[in-house]
Amino acid sequence: MSENKWVVYIVRCTDDTLYTGITNNLDKRLQAHDDGIGAKYTKSRGPVELVYREMATDRSAASKREYVIKRLSRAQKMELVGGSDPKNIRSSP
Fold it and tell me: Are 58 and 6 in contact (CB under 8 A)?
């Protein structure tokens, strides 16, 4: 059984809102968001732009980190993603 690599990610939607999620296949998940099938929230707000990603040890750790990030204020999330420059995709180990 192969080990899945889980990622917590934040995308910026076209209306400048932020969406946080988890996945074990980031490229496929981002494409799903852009295709309007990734999440109900992003369905009408795409295409999305990846602004932050953080590796997690497993699904449980990713879910717990997602929970923490989703409870941050917008200002705190903007600080986490590195401000408003969409070309500055932040990664955390």
Answer: yes
Cα 86–chain centre separation = 13
- Sign of the dihedral defined by the CA atoms of residues 14, 70, 33, 12, in that order: positive
**Alpha helix (H) residue ranges in the chain:** 26-34, 40-43, 59-70, 74-81
- CATH 1.10.260.40 assigned to domain 6-92? The reply is no
pLDDT (tens, 9 = 90+) of the chain, 93 residues, equals 345 699 999 999 999 999 999 999 999 999 999 998 988 999 989 899 999 999 999 999 999 999 999 999 999 999 999 865 555 555 555
Which three-class secondary structure state does DSSP give residue 52?
strand
